[in-house]
Design goal:
Distance between the termini: 17 Å
Helix content: 40-55%
Strand content: 5-15%
Largest sheet: 7 strands, parallel
Order of helices and strands: HHHHEHEEHHEHHHEHEHEHEHHEH
Shape: globular
Strand order of the largest sheet: 1-4-5-6-7-8-9
Number of strands: 9
């Protein structure tokens, strides 16, 4: 018999406590076409309808074997709610931003978060889905909810070109926008936790060193992460795509319980940087391995993560829609085999 329930193991790991084995989860998007076919919950509906969102998310646990349930499946929830024009995508293409409301620096002064933004069709759908997932998953399975962070939102609301140019020429403009957006993130994250999520994942790759200089991160973004962690009442994970090595030490001081890292970050080296200050989550490649290679290669790379000291075994980022289901099952089995051996 297992010593812990899935939720107990997940929570204990994030709190730095000892467990019987490393959880195998996904804290990023889990919607794949094969699960859509098995559940009848297809994109685009599963991105906008709470019942279908919950059904597809639960399949990641019940069918694929991840030891958690996670939603939503795209990064446009808050962006659309706050004024971006979004294309709803297709069965294998996630929603994406087509146009944005902040076209010039002066627009930042007029930008404000709607008082009822948690009642928008996008945020309301995710909040309702989290509640459904919590009830259907039961008390033993952790529920994880994702939201885009202030840097990611700023790059969508102002456009990536403006975001990068203003960070260099008028950093105070970006900082003002980031501060407003962080307030929305805090309110939304707490709402997700109140509706039943056991942890929230702040996805903020546009704050990483692949996009902005580490000094800009430390000056403009890090203080906001501290505020997020101080004011959000629950377990908190930060996910940053790309090679986040240069800011791992700073992230470890932000008070997130976990850092989700891509395969570009070496697990052993990351451990040397962060020590025991924070837990590491990742980092088998979703594109180079889980999508395109076979179960044997998936198992080899999963085992390497475990041997290198990962705290929660997970894909390094969101799954590609055409990721084979057999590869996800092989990913989970690799953890089981590791402990049997």
């Amino acid at each position: 018999m297992n010593e812990f329930t899935l939720k107990e193991r997940f929570e204990k790991v994030l709190k730095g406590e000892s467990v019987d084995k490393v959880p195998v989860c996904s804290v990023t998007q889990t919607g794949i076409v094969e699960l859509m076919e098995l559940t009848g919950a297809y994109w685009t509906e599963a991105n906008y309808d709470a019942e279908k969102m919950a059904a597809l998310a639960l399949a990641g646990h019940e069918i694929a074997g991840f030891e958690n349930v996670r939603c939503p499946f795209c990064t446009t929830v808050l962006a659309e709610t706050l004024g971006c024009i979004v294309d709803e995508g297709t069965v294998d293409i996630q929603p994406y931003v087509r146009d944005f409301p902040i076209q010039k620096k002066a627009d930042v002064k007029d930008f404000a978060i709607p008082a009822d933004f948690l009642e928008s069709r996008r945020t309301a759908a995710v909040l309702d889905a989290v509640e459904i997932m919590t009830k259907k998953a039961g008390e033993d399975v952790p529920v994880v909810a994702g939201l885009v962070g202030p840097a990611g939102l700023a790059s969508m609301l102002a456009g990536m070109k403006n975001y990068l140019m203003w960070f260099v020429s008028k950093p105070e403009v970006v900082e003002d926008l980031l501060a407003v957006l962080m307030e929305a993130c805090i309110e939304y994250a707490n709402a997700l936790l109140e509706r039943g999520a056991d942890a929230v994942v702040l996805i903020d790759s546009e704050a990483g060193p692949d996009i902005i200089a580490p000094l800009m991160f430390e000056t403009s973004v890090y203080p906001l992460y501290r505020k997020f962690c101080n004011r959000v009442d629950g377990l908190k994970i930060i996910h940053m795509c790309g090679d986040a090595t240069a800011v791992l030490g700073t992230l470890a001081e932000s008070s997130f319980e976990g850092i989700s890292i891509e395969e570009k970050v070496g697990v052993s080296f990351a451990r040397e940087i962060v020590g025991n200050r924070v837990r590491l989550i990742g980092n088998v490649s979703p594109s180079d391995t889980l999508l395109t290679r076979g179960p044997d290669v998936v198992a080899i790379e999963a085992r390497a993560c475990l041997e290198d000291g990962i705290d929660i075994l997970a894909p390094g980022c969101g799954l590609a829609p055409h990721t084979p289901l057999e590869n996800i099952k092989a990913f989970v089995k690799a953890r089981d085999d590791y402990y049997l051996e």
